[in-house]
Amino acid sequence: MTGKAILNIQEAVQAKSFFNKPTASASLVAGNISDELGKSSHKVTGQVSCGTQYHFHMETQSALCVPVEDGMDVYSSTQWLQTIQSAVSDSLAMPNNMVNVRVKRCGGGFGGKLSRAAQVAAAAGIAANAVKRPVRVHLDLDTNMQLVGKRWPYMGEYEVGFSDDGKINGVKIVVYADGGSASNDISLVEALSWSDNVYNVAAWQLIPVAVRTNTPANTWCRAPGSVPVIFIMESIIEHVAKTLQMPPEKVRALNMYQKGQVTPWKMPLTYFNVDEILTQLNASAEITDRQTAVTAFNETNRWKKRGLSTIPIKYGISWLGTMFSAQVSIYAPDGTIAITHAGVEIGQGINTKVAQVAAHLLKAPINLIKIKQSDTLTSPNVSATGGSITSESVSKAVINACEELNKRLQTAREIMPDSSWLEIIQMASNSGIDLSARGWVLGEHDRPTPFAYNCYGAACAEVELDALTGETNVVRYDMLYDCGQSMNPEVDVGQVEGAVVMGLGYWLMEGCVYDEVSGQALTHNTWEYKVPMAGDIPVDMRLTLLQNAPNPLGVLSSKAVAEPPMTSTCSLLFAAKHCVESARKEIDQDTHFILNAPATPENLQQHTLLDISQMTL
After folding, report:
1. Is the Cβ–Cβ distance between 9 and 211 less than 8 Å?
2. 103 - beta bridge partners?
3. Is 190 an active-site residue?
4. Angle formed at CA 401 by CA 368 and CA 562, multiple of 5 degrees
5. Is the CB of residue 383 less than 8 Å from the CB of residue 342?
6. What is the pLDDT of residues 347-365, one digit of tens each?
């Protein structure tokens, strides 16, 4: 290409570089936005954006293809069995039933191994078919970072009307999303459904616009769409608060949903506990006392500043149209159990939960259970591992299979009520009972919204800023997350920890740079692209699951956990922003400003408006 490349959303809008979809008909409208804006005593407009993010899975894209008698065996590091099967099948003009995809586990995924693993698998398949020998393709980090694509950057142009007391009447947002050079992996329209977060507003108008840039095609990344739109809404809250010179927490509390209200997307909030969560978090995290301490710290320090921010979240979980399976087999000689399922272990603990569920349902010792690899023979036509729903969905499939097995074992258990597991299994086998069963789950519910239920939580971040350099230190991070009745608290807390660290990188560190002519990614290794390391982790991190909060709409009363907590990590950016506000207050410049993400040290330092004339003794 010649001339300057289109590298970001602002440039794409100026150049009118848009994808054909979504169209204006995909807009979400609730209430009368014109009336609500018209009657508001205050109106503000603004523009806020958040950038891209590389997945940084520890294992890069890889695939091994082995020609066999009946076709091709494919061992892929993927989150999506069916996509790999189709990619290799199409590339080789080979029927699907001759492509055998097998996945034991992935060394991380975060969405980067959904569609993008297909490129590597197809390349390995073509080469293996040509030379009639096994071929492995394993990308190095540089190639992986350039090829795979990253999180979609977002920008919100908003107009908001509100009253003197901070009550928001109407919100209008044009939500732009940057797909790079292609829009295949788009979730922009779905993202709009998270835009309200926890706030009850009379009128909404949300207009989705997908832009085309000359950067590598972007893809799904942990909590795609929801992370940026909740950040946009929270930036609006901060803008309203600054305009009225009110604490942001007061504006949040005034506009928060109450139990029983209905969202703009027709979902009744029959269960809403964010107020309870905030009350508990305020007590456990000592937020009121720490805010007083932060104020005192800032009054006595010129070049070091601290900020505190508390962000509540409401995160809808949807499994509509998804399909998952599980096969449970019991072996009579020793009573051991083997399970294969449609999910992929990507570090989220799905195999641990599956084993626990089977042991609980079958009343069998868990040490007898072995989770086998996932494959397209036992799990054809299934959905991808993603969206925070797979552990639940696969567990439900295991429940269905185990319930069928329990029916078959009932006679043996009645005849031998005091017998061991092995004795019951051997008696059933000797009676000709089939000791293998398959479970199948189709995601569906009877609600008028795509969401089956909501996850709730709140996080409080305290950040210290060096106003001279822009460097930050996360002093403390607290989160209280409603995980329902957790299937495994250690696994789920680990997922919350991972979300916090990934969010820390996204909001404060991970900036990307592209070549101005070609659009090629220049930050494609760890020399230029900085992810959180040991010294970046919050000094004090306290992550807690809400107690006594079973979810009647979830599997075994549980809730999803992988993605929702990440949406609250924008509290890190807002805490850093409050540090900057304190620094600007020293020079009588404490006015509203937009802080785009990532809030890297150079970004923060520039916003402090530091000038050499201020450096006096």
Report:
1. yes
2. 374
3. no
4. 80
5. yes
6. 999 999 999 999 999 999 9
